[in-house]
Recover the amino acids of this structure.
C-alpha cells in the first residue's frame, strides 16, 4: 500500500507560496539529483539543490534557514539539465525573496571594506546587492 | 480686488481647511493657523527647507514640491516634510578619488538603484535625479556633478526611493570631487588665495575693523560698483 | 546584408569603469569589420542579474527603459540596425531575459509601460544581440580575411561562463556543446583548446562577500586551462574577468605553487589580430600581465 504524505496546513501554504513565486511545479521533481550533481557550488552548500526541492515540496520551512539558497548564484547549470524541465535557480530565488521581503538581508552593504570597494567592479556590487539585500 | 476672496478646500494632515485660492502651500498652512518653525526658510524656492508631498483631487499620483512655490488646488491633500533622515559619512577630500570606487565605499546604496525614475518624478527642481545616480554608478563624476547642480537638498528624492538611496548627499560628494579633481582650476583664484595667505590684504582689513560705524556705512554706500 | 552595421550600443556600467579595455578594443575592432557602434545617448544600469520570480516586475523596468531609448534611436534614424548590441555577458543575459518576458507577456509589458508614464511606450521592436553573434553573422571567414597579424602560436581557452549559454532560450549557442568562441579563435589564427571548464561558473558576485568560493572556482578553471595546454583564457564578461584575473592574487596567496595565466577580453585579441595599435587593446589594465606572453609569441 503506498503511503500518502500529508503536509501540515502551514507547510502546504508555504509550498504553494514558493510555487507561485518561482513559477515552478516543485512537486514534479523526481529527486533524480542531476541538479546537485552538476552544481558548481554544491561543496559550499549545507544541503544540496535537490534537497531544497525536496524540503520545499514537503513544506519544510526550515529550508529557509539553509545556506544553499544564498550560495546558489543562478548559474543556470541545473536549469538546462533537469530532466523534468524544472528550474532550481528560480526556486532558490523564491526562497531568497521570501526572506528579503521580510526585510531580512543576507549582507550588510556597509561591511564591504574600503579596499574592496575601491577594487571591485560595479557589476559585482550591483548584482550582490540585488541578490542579497531587500 | 473683488470683495469675496475665492476660497478652496485643502486637507492638511487629513484635516479640512478653507484657504484663499492662489495661496502657496506654505501660505495655506499659515492661513490655517499653523506656525511653521521647521520646514520653511527662504520662501523663494532656493533653500529647499519646505519639501511637501501632496495629492490632487482625482489623481493617483503622489507629487512632491516646494511648499513656498506650489500653489494649492481644491481638495488637495498635503503633508509637510520638514526633515528627511539621511546618513552622511565623513571623508577627507584629499584622501578620495573621483571614481565609482569612492561611492562604493561611502555611498554603497547608490549601487542598489533599480532605475525606476521615481526620484526624477519627485524632484521639484526638475533634475534628472536617476540620471545622475546612474552617472555615479558608471563613474562619470563630471556628468553627475553637472546634472545635480541645481539640487537644493529638499530630500524628496530620497524619501521616495525604493532602493533607499540618499541621492542628494551623493550629489554633494560628486560636486565636491568635480570641483577638486576634475574642473579646470582657476589661476586667478589660486593667485588671489596666495595673496591672502601672504597677508597682502591684512592692512586693509585691519583698517576696516578699526573704523567707526558711520565711517563704515559711508564707505559702503560710496563704494565703486563694477557692472560687467 | 548591409555593408556597414550601424547599431545602438549598450555599454553597461563596468565597461565604463574597470573594463574600459573591453570597450575600446571592441569599438576599434568593429570599425575594421563593418560594425559601427553608436553608444546610446541615454542608458541606465541593466541591474546585472535578472529577477527570477514571477512577480517582481520592478527589476525589469531598467532593461525596458533602455529598450525605449534604443527604439527612439531607430526612429530618429541614427542607426541602420534596430537591434541592441551588448558586449558584457551579464548585461546581455539580463536584457535578453527581460525582453523575452515582456514580449511574451502583454500584461507585464503594459504594467511596465504604465509605470514609466513619462517615457514613450516600449513597442517590443528591439532584439538584443551579442558581439559574438554579430561576428558570426558577418562570417568568421570574412573576419579571417581581415586578419593582418595572425595569432598563430597562441592556444586559447574559450571561456563562456554562464551568461552566454544559459538558460537555453537566452544562450547564443548550444548550452552543453558550444562552438562559437572556438570559431572566433580559429578566425584570428589561434588554436582553441578543448577543455572542461568552458561553461563552469566563476563564482560570480560571491566575489563581494565570499571570496573563498571564487578563489576555489577560479583556481579550478585556470588549472583546467593549463592542463589543456592553453596560453590564455578569453571571456566576454567583466565579472568573470575580475574573478579569473584579479583573484589570481588571492589564489597565489593560498597556493604559492599556483601557475598564473593571463585573461583577455575576446575583443582584445580581435583588435590585436586586426593590427590595431596597442592603445586600442588596453594591455595595461590586466592584473596578470599578458605582455610577456604576447612578446614571446612575437605579437607585440
Ligand atoms: S534535476 Fe530536476 S528532477 Fe532532478 S532533482 Fe533536480 S530539480 Fe528534481
Ligand atoms: S543555478 Fe544554483 S543550484 Fe543550479 S547549478 Fe547553479 S548554483 Fe547550483
Ligand atoms: S535631487 Fe532630490 S534633494 Fe535635490 S532638489 Fe531634487 S528632489 Fe530635492
Ligand atoms: S528612486 Fe532610487 S531606485 Fe529609483 S531611479 Fe531613483 S535612485 Fe534609482
Ligand atoms: S522656503 Fe526655501 S525653498 Fe521653500
Amino acid at each position: 500500500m503506498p503511503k500518502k504524505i500529508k503536509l501540515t496546513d502551514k507547510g502546504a501554504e508555504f509550498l504553494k507560496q514558493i510555487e507561485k513565486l518561482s513559477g515552478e511545479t516543485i512537486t514534479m521533481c523526481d529527486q533524480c539529483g542531476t541538479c546537485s550533481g552538476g552544481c558548481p557550488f554544491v561543496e559550499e552548500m549545507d544541503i544540496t539543490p535537490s534537497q531544497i526541492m525536496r524540503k520545499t515540496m514537503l513544506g519544510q520551512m526550515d529550508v529557509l534557514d539553509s545556506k544553499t539558497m544564498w550560495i546558489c548564484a543562478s548559474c543556470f547549470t541545473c536549469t538546462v539539465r533537469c530532466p523534468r524541465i524544472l528550474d532550481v535557480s528560480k526556486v532558490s530565488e523564491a526562497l531568497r525573496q521570501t526572506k528579503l521581503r521580510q526585510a531580512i538581508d543576507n549582507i550588510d552593504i556597509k561591511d564591504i571594506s574600503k579596499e574592496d570597494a575601491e577594487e571591485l567592479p560595479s557589476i559585482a556590487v550591483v548584482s550582490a546587492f540585488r541578490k542579497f539585500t531587500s | 480686488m473683488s470683495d469675496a476672496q475665492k476660497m478652496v478646500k485643502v486637507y492638511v494632515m487629513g484635516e479640512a481647511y478653507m484657504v484663499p485660492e492662489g495661496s502657496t502651500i506654505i501660505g495655506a498652512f499659515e492661513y490655517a493657523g499653523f506656525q511653521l518653525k521647521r520646514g520653511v526658510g527662504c520662501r523663494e524656492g532656493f533653500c529647499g527647507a519646505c519639501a511637501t508631498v501632496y495629492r490632487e483631487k482625482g489623481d493617483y499620483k503622489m507629487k512632491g514640491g516646494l511648499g513656498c512655490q506650489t500653489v494649492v488646488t481644491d481638495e488637495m491633500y498635503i503633508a509637510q516634510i520638514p526633515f528627511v533622515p539621511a546618513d552622511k559619512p565623513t571623508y577627507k577630500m584629499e584622501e578620495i578619488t573621483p571614481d565609482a570606487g569612492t561611492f562604493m565605499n561611502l555611498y554603497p546604496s547608490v549601487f542598489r538603484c533599480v532605475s525606476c525614475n521615481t526620484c526624477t518624478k519627485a524632484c521639484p527642481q526638475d533634475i534628472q535625479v536617476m540620471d545622475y545616480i546612474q552617472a555615479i554608478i558608471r563613474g562619470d563624476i563630471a556628468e553627475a556633478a553637472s546634472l545635480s547642480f541645481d539640487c537644493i537638498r529638499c530630500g524628496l528624492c530620497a524619501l521616495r526611493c525604493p532602493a533607499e538611496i540618499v541621492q542628494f548627499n551623493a550629489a554633494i560628494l560628486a560636486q565636491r570631487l568635480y570641483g577638486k579633481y576634475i574642473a579646470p582650476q582657476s589661476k586667478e583664484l589660486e593667485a588671489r588665495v596666495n595673496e591672502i595667505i601672504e597677508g597682502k590684504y591684512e592692512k586693509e582689513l585691519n583698517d576696516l575693523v578699526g573704523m567707526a560705524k558711520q565711517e563704515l556705512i559711508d564707505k559702503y554706500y560710496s563704494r565703486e560698483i563694477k557692472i560687467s | 546584408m548591409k555593408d556597414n552595421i550601424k547599431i545602438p550600443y549598450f555599454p553597461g556600467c563596468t565597461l565604463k569603469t574597470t573594463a574600459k579595455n573591453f570597450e575600446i578594443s571592441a569599438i576599434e575592432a568593429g570599425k575594421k569589420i563593418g560594425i559601427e557602434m553608436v553608444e546610446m545617448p541615454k542608458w541606465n544600469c541593466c541591474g546585472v542579474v535578472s529577477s527570477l520570480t514571477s512577480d517582481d516586475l520592478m527589476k525589469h523596468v531598467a532593461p525596458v527603459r533602455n529598450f525605449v531609448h534604443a527604439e527612439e534611436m531607430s526612429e530618429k534614424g541614427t542607426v541602420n540596425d534596430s537591434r541592441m548590441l551588448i558586449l558584457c555577458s551579464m548585461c546581455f543575459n539580463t536584457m535578453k531575459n527581460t525582453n523575452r518576458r515582456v514580449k511574451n507577456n502583454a500584461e507585464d509589458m503594459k504594467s511596465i509601460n504604465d509605470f514609466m508614464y513619462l517615457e514613450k511606450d516600449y513597442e517590443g521592436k528591439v532584439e538584443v544581440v551579442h558581439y559574438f553573434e554579430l561576428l558570426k553573422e558577418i562570417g568568421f571567414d570574412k573576419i579571417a580575411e581581415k586578419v593582418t597579424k595572425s595569432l598563430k602560436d597562441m592556444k586559447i581557452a574559450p571561456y563562456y561562463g554562464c551568461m552566454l549559454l544559459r538558460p537555453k532560450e537566452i544562450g547564443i549557442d548550444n548550452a552543453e556543446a558550444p562552438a562559437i568562441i572556438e570559431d572566433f579563435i580559429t578566425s584570428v589564427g589561434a588554436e582553441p583548446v578543448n577543455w572542461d571548464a568552458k561553461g563552469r561558473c566563476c563564482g560570480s558576485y560571491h566575489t563581494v562577500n565570499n571570496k573563498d568560493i571564487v578563489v576555489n572556482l577560479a583556481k579550478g578553471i585556470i588549472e583546467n586551462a593549463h592542463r589543456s595546454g592553453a596560453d590564455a583564457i578569453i571571456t566576454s564578461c567583466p565579472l568573470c574577468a575580475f574573478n579569473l584575473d584579479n583573484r589570481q592574487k588571492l589564489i597565489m596567496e593560498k597556493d604559492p605553487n599556483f601557475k598564473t595565466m593571463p585573461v583577455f577580453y575576446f575583443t582584445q585579441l580581435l583588435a590585436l589580430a586586426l593590427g590595431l595599435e596597442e592603445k586600442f587593446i588596453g594591455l595595461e589594465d590586466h592584473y596578470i600581465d599578458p605582455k610577456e606572453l604576447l612578446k614571446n609569441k612575437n605579437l607585440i
The radius of gyration of chain B is 23 Å. The pocket of iron/sulfur cluster (ligand 3) is lined by residues B 122-123, 125, 127, 129, 151-157, 167-168 (CB under 6 Å).
